[in-house]
Amino acid sequence: xxxxxxxxxxxxxxxxxxxxxxxxxxxxxxxxxxxxxxxxxxxxxxxxxxxxxxxxxxxxxxxxxxxxxxxxxxxxxxxxxxxxxxxxxxxxxxxxxxxxxxxxxxxxxxxxxxxxxxxxxxxxxxxxxxxxxxxxxxxxxxxxxxxxxxxxxxxxxxxxxxxxxxxxxxxxxxxxxxxxxxxxxxxxxxxxxxxxxxxxxxxxx
Length: 205
Prior knowledge:
mainly alpha
């Protein structure tokens, strides 16, 4: 059982560290630059996992803290786009792995993160992934339309993930939802393990 689990985590980490070059230009040719910005993050496993982990973390902390991310996360994506030239591929992979490890550990520990720290984590994730998405742009891409699409999908994904997590963790009148808290913590453990493996692979290469 442990051997299968280790193999699954290793395979996931390898997929994530190797998933840098999404074919954004093919999408752009068919749907336009706005839709490219909206769809490009959904083709990258690192975006999908980090955005989901951030939304789940915010959802576990409640609506009062999480609602700030509705504004902070899209702004972070926009702030990261022009920074694409400052991030190399190796630095982006290591930063992704570090954030994944940190968020996973917070989820696994069920830590009560202050609002300021939560916003800082979400902003950092958004800047890193905004830069990674910006690095995929070609010279013919309309950056304004791409940025609008990226901000819209960031707002949508983070809001839906927070709402679904909050509903999932909602305590029932008979107090029968305790297993859901354990499930979220177990998910955090998986995310942390993948982040640790990604960091090891990034440092090894």
